[in-house]
Amino acid sequence: MIVPTGHHVIVKPDPVEEVSKGGIVVTANNDLLKREQAATVTGTIVAIGVNAWKAFDDSTPWAKVGDRVYYTKHVSKVVKDPETQEELFLMTDDNILAIIK
User: Which class is 8-14+41-100 in CATH?
Assistant: First the structure.
């Protein structure tokens, strides 16, 4: 388990389509292309640091674990969950742009 610190959050990106809209098959070994497509910029929050969305007051975080969100493209650090080996994105809370309802 990875526990984010401070103002960081961990997002599990939505799965990337294996076939593009134009019908091109994306090969499993083309991780860079998959990440580029996964500029999908949508995912699910799986962990939140203790200071996420808290400025200088004790405001309540506006997003929570389990929320589907839009996030800023190309700002995260890719980390692997040591238990599941899933690739997750570690980023600061201000890179979460919106909740998808």
Answer: mainly beta
